[in-house]
Structure formats: C-alpha cells, structure tokens
C-alpha cells in the first residue's frame, strides 16, 4: 500500500476506537495530527463521523441524559377508606359467581379428559334375549384399539389440497433451511478438479455443484441480481461499505466482459478491505470487549499487516497459535493472552473452534454424547498449551512517569504428562496428540509450535475446510454446515464435494484469501 493508503487505514482504526470509546490519550493526539495535516483525512473523518452518528441515534444512546429525572414526591400516609356495605355485598356476590363458574369449568374439563371415546363392539343377540351380549373376540378387539399408540386419523397429502401445498412449499421456505441445502447423498458424483485449476474452472465447478443441488431438491433459483444490486452487495461484503455514487457509476458504465472480476480484484487491493477483515477477525479472536489487560490495537495491527500483504492464511494461524513475547511488541500474542489461563481450557476450545471449525469444549468433562469425540482427545490438544504461561512484565518508566506493566506469553522448558479426571473420578493421562500424530512431551520440545505446524501443514486440510466454510457463510449468510464452527460426522455439509474441492484449491493456491473471495463472488449463486 502507498503511504496515503497506510495513513487512511490507520485513521480508520483510530476512528473505530473513538466510536468504541477506547481511544487512549496518545491515540487522540495521533488522530488530531492526521486529520489536521491532510484534507483527504479531514474528509474521511467527517464522513465517518456522519455515518456513525446516523447509525448511532437509532440505539437511543445517551437518551437518559436528555430526559430529566422526575422530581421525588414526599410520601403521604393516606387514611384507610372502607367501601360502603352495598359495595361489599356486590363484591361478595361477584366473587361467589366467579368461583362457581370456575368450579363448573374444572368439573367439565375433568370429565371430558377422563372419559374414553366409546368404540362400538361387535355383539351377538341370541334369540330370546332382550339385551345383546358382546363376544370375547369383540371385547379383545376393542381393548386392543383402545391401547393402540396411534389413534389419530391418517390423511395422505395427496387427498388434502392444503397439506399438498404445504408439502410443495416446504422446500421453498427461506426460514430454517437454506435454498441450497440438501442431503449430500442425493447429489450425483462428480470428478475432482486438477491441482491448481484455473479460476474459470473453479468457478464453473461451484456453479455445477450448486445447480445439481437445486435440481436434486427441485428448487427454482432466484433470478440473477442486476448490476446495481450486485455492486452494492460486493462492496458491503468485501470492504464493509456501500459504493459511492462515482464508484457505482464507473462499474455500471463499463462494457468490459470481465468487469465483475476486475472489481473484485480492485476491492481486495483497497485499504478498506484490510480494515474490514482485520476488524472482523479481531472481534472473532478476542471479542468486542475483554476484561484482560491486552493490547487490542497491537493485535489488529498484526492483522492489518497480514491482510495488506495477503499473507497465506496458514501462516497467519501459525503465528497466532505459536506467538511468543509481550502484548505490545508481538501483536499476535494477544489472541492467547485473552484466553489462556492455568488449565488452558478456554484457549483449547477457541483455537479449535475458530481455526478448525470444531467444537470440543463439550468433551472437557465427558465423551461427546452424539459423535465419536472423546474426553481424552480434548486433553490431548489441551496438553499442547501446558508449557505456556502468562506473565506480567514491568516496563521501564521514563523520568516523571509512573511505572507500568504488560502481559506476555512465555514458554517454559518443562515436559511431562497432563492428567484429567473422568466422570467416574479416575485420573487419566493425556499426551500431546493432534489428528493421530503424537508429539514428544520432552521439556525441550515447544509443544505450541508443534501444534501450529500440524494444524497448518501436511495432509490435514481441516484448517482449509474451516476457512472455506466460514468464508462461504460470510458471503451467503449460511455455511456448508450450521453452525459453521461445529463441523464433523454428526453435522454433514450440504455440499461435501464442493466443500472439499474448494478446500483443495485453497491449499493449492497457497491459502490465498483474496483468491478464495474471488471464486465465491464470481459464482452464479452469489450473483
């Protein structure tokens, strides 16, 4: 990025901190310096403030300051007033009638509930008898019918027009089911793409897989969006804002056949792309607020630089998982500083959920009730974090300034076994192990670095699958699985071949995030 683009990206982060009321004194001075030194920065500041103010009013922030407090009224003891005798009599009569009606209603409901529907039994009427006598066979049949678990009348949908309409519209519903969702086994088999396939081949593969899903589910897809609709959509999804009038007109007036691809490439090279995605991932990694004394700005600066350089996604994850040092110097450390405690349970859960798309927190205390995940697997991954300790380092104070401190991640040279307690009260050992690969528990082995290597390299592509699933959900509002961070055998993807192929191509591209965005945004489903 140019110096001007870097300055605007920094200004955007400062403005966000200002709106979040987390701007420090030094950052306020830096914000003032940037705004007053550059007319473009001043215009950006005004536009950002106007937009935030327009959105902020709807939340009724500060309304309590605008509404004056009510003047307290002194308490006055009021004399007790008894109703007249006639009023008491009317109240008694009304209460009595109400109680009688309620009692009658209870009796009626009780008798209706306990009364069994009478069924007509087959009877015989011997000659000479006035009253017919039910046969033993008829009584048995009546008792069997009475004890049958299914006593409701069954109506075929084809015999009832309303049921038939409901059945036909169920697939078209946009409620809990996505338009592209279906059982994976209903899709026809398809040949995989060659390694490092062309962009056109990948987009075509996406289109064919989605179209096969529509046909299998008997779904009529929506018409293509107009260029006016599409340009607004892609601006919002990629850089987090709508296009300006000039930007929209430039795209709409273009007659180039590849103008959609050109625009996507232009947007992913825009400083707003960096700001948008660094903000998204900062909130995913540490949330909007945290009680920990971490450096949020340093973490976002790390992400800003990573997205600006288009670093491979596996390299970014490697740095976040294996980071060492203090919160200010190495921004990547703030991810684990926000979640690491003595047992490293939160760090274990969020690392697998964010980067691998799997939720293993349930197996902390017991085996998973609905899949094959075991308690031992949780603690095997947890043992990778047991060498790491959060410490507080003192910062050398300048003359006249108060001494301060900051958090830091330190890896200790210690090995050994991790023990956990089963629900039966037994203590069991766990050793560092990921995806079937065991790691030495010797003290000279940095376990977090080994975990980062296993997650981001080799034949295991769960990191790629999780990122593809998350990005798909970002652009379509619905991932291949729901939720997107609970992947596994218990939660089959709607389009497994498409998910796997996109993950393969993502790996072959060098974990290129911009390339993945381009494939998705050029697909027919997105348009």
UniProtKB/TrEMBL annotation:
Positions of the DUF1553 domain: 447-527
Pfam families linked to this entry: PSCyt2, PSD1
Transmembrane portions of the chain: 92-113
Domain of life: Bacteria
PANTHER family referenced in this protein's UniProt entry, alphabetically: CYCLOINULO-OLIGOSACCHARIDE FRUCTANOTRANSFERASE-RELATED (PTHR35889), F-BOX DOMAIN-CONTAINING PROTEIN (PTHR35889:SF3)
Keywords: Membrane, Transmembrane, Transmembrane helix
Name of the protein in its database record: DUF1549 domain-containing protein
């Amino acid at each position: 990025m140019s110096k001007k683009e870097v300055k605007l990206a920094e200004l955007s982060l400062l403005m966000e901190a200002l709106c979040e009321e987390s701007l420090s004194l030094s950052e306020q001075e830096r914000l003032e310096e940037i705004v007053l030194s550059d007319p473009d920065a001043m215009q950006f500041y005004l536009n950002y403030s106007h937009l935030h103010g327009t959105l902020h009013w709807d939340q009724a922030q500060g309304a309590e300051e605008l509404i004056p407090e009510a003047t307290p009224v002194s308490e006055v003891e009021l004399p007790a007033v008894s109703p007249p005798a006639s009023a008491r009599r009317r109240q008694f009569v009304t209460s009595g009638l109400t109680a009688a009606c309620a009692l009658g209603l209870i009796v009626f409901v009780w008798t209706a509930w306990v009364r069994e529907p009478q069924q007509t039994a087959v009877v015989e009427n011997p000659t000479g008898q006035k009253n017919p006598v039910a046969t033993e066979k008829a009584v048995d049949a009546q008792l069997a019918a009475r004890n049958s678990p299914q006593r409701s009348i069954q109506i075929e949908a084809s015999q009832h027009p309303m049921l038939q309409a409901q059945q036909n519209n169920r697939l078209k519903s946009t409620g809990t089911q996505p338009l592209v969702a279906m059982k994976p086994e209903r899709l026809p088999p398809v040949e995989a793409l060659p390694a490092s396939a062309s962009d056109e081949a990948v987009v075509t593969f996406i289109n064919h897989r989605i179209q096969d899903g529509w046909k299998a589910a008997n779904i009529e897809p929506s018409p293509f969006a107009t260029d006016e609709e599409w340009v607004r959509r892609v601006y919002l999804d990629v850089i987090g804002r709508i296009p300006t009038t000039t930007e929209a007109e430039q795209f709409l007036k273009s007659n180039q056949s590849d103008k959609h691809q050109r625009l996507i490439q232009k947007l992913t090279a825009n400083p707003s792309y960096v700001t948008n995605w660094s903000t998204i991932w900062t909130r995913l990694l540490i949330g909007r607020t945290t009680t920990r004394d971490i450096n949020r700005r340093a973490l976002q600066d790390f992400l800003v630089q990573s997205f600006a350089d288009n670093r491979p996604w596996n390299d970014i994850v490697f740095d976040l998982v294996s980071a060492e040092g203090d919160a200010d110097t190495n921004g990547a450390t703030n991810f684990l500083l926000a979640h690491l405690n003595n047992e490293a349970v939160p760090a274990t859960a969020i690392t697998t959920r964010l980067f691998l798309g799997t939720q293993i927190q349930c197996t902390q205390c017991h085996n998973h009730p609905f899949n094959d995940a075991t308690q031992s697997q949780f603690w095997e991954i947890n043992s990778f974090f047991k060498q790491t300790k959060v410490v507080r380092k003192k910062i050398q104070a300048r003359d006249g300034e108060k001494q301060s401190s900051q958090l830091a991640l330190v890896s200790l040279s210690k090995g050994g076994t991790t023990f956990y307690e089963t629900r039966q009260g037994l203590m069991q050992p766990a050793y560092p192990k990921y995806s079937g690969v065991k790691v030495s528990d010797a003290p000279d082995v940095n376990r977090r670095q080994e975990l980062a290597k296993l997650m981001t390299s080799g034949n295991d592509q769960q990191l790629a699958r999780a990122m593809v699933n998350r990005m798909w959900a970002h652009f379509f509002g619905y991932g291949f699985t729901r939720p997107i961070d609970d992947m596994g055998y218990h939660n089959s993807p709607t389009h497994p071949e498409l998910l796997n192929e996109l993950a393969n191509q993502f790996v072959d591209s060098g974990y290129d995030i911009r390339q993945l965005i381009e494939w998705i945004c050029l697909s027919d489903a997105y348009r």
